[in-house]
Amino acid sequence: MALDNELVVDLLTYIEQVEKLKIKPAFSVPTEYFAAHQHELKGLPEIRFNVQAEGEDVWLCVPRLKEIPAPEPDEKLAPWITIHKTPAKAPELKPSIETPASSETPDQQRARAEIHELFDWYVENQWTPWAAAELPRRKTIHRYNQVFAIQQAIASDGADTPLELVWGIGLALWKKEGKGALSNTL
Predict the structure, then answer these.
(1) How many C-beta atoms lie closer than 10 Å to residue 87's C-beta?
(2) pLDDT tens for residues 74-118?
(3) Total structural domains within the chain
């Protein structure tokens, strides 16, 4: 009889666990909130990890940076060029601009060649160095905005829809059967 009771309890426990697998979680972390691994943040401008500030341990410091606009082109080049706000998209040279004269003269052809030279110089010597420095800054700005959005959500929705900030540090090792011993070189 005792064995039958144990079997029934085991069966009921099994059924309970199977049913728990079918239940949807009450809350799952929304994807629109900030989630990042340290390797994704490392190397971004001005982001710091594990800092001592005023006697406190600060695990992550993301400063509020401002976007730096692209350098202004030469005034001869300015009407001919389209500069995008993002450093991810290179400036473009317009195929033509409106001028009072309708037919192209040799002077205008020389001017067009000069515009191409100015454009190439601008892209190589001004825009490209700016974009190389600004692209990582924009990533830091994006990460700041994500963290700030979490802070705002926690502050405004705190009691109604509780949010929790989770910071994890971990290391996992797996020794697979049939494979060599773990090495100490991690």
Answers:
(1) 20
(2) 998 899 999 999 999 999 998 877 766 555 566 677 878 888 999
(3) 1
